[in-house]
Design goal:
This protein has a single domain, classed as Roll (Nuclear Transport Factor 2, Chain: A). The chain is of the alpha+beta class. A 6-stranded mixed β-sheet has the order 2-1-6-5-4-3, with helices on one face. 23% of the residues are buried. The chain has 3 helices and 6 strands.
């Protein structure tokens, strides 16, 4: 009887670990989806909801760490100068406690490559790094 209980407990733990990983996977996909929507709408406030307490932003070669409040202002200024027309994710992936998405932001005057990097604190994902680069290919979307 004791061996059967150990087997059942082991099976239960494996199922729980597997479901925990899938919950984190779903969470990262949801954050990427909502971030893509915020980027397309030029909505710095909603984008920043998914930022970690401090976030590394590399905007057109200027790289620094910002608080959520500072990052909102920085992104608002960016969106005022670059009105978004369309954003599309071209690549994304996740592995255990990290995830990423790369896409193109088409604005009225330029096309930018956006890279979003997420990490988990164990219970949920946060964006910890955001890169905005001039798209050298300029293909649009």
């Amino acid at each position: 009887m004791g061996k059967q209980k150990i087997k059942l407990l082991s099976l239960f733990l494996l199922i729980m670990l597997g479901s925990s990983a899938s919950v984190l996977q779903q969470d990262s996909n949801e954050i990427i989806s909502k971030s893509a929507e915020a980027l397309q709408n030029g909505d710095a406030v909603n984008l920043a909801k998914y930022f970690y307490k401090t976030i590394e932003i590399d905007m057109l070669g200027e790289e620094n760490f910002y608080s959520q409040a500072q990052s909102v202002q920085l992104l608002k200024n960016f969106f005022e100068k670059n009105k978004p027309v369309k954003f599309a994710v071209s690549h994304q992936g996740a592995k255990e406690t990290s995830a990423f998405a790369i896409g193109q932001l088409q604005t009225k005057g330029n096309t930018f490559r956006i890279s979003i990097f997420l990490k988990s604190d164990g219970s949920q994902f946060f964006i910890h790094q955001l890169r905005i680069e001039q798209d050298e290919e300029g293909n649009g979307i």
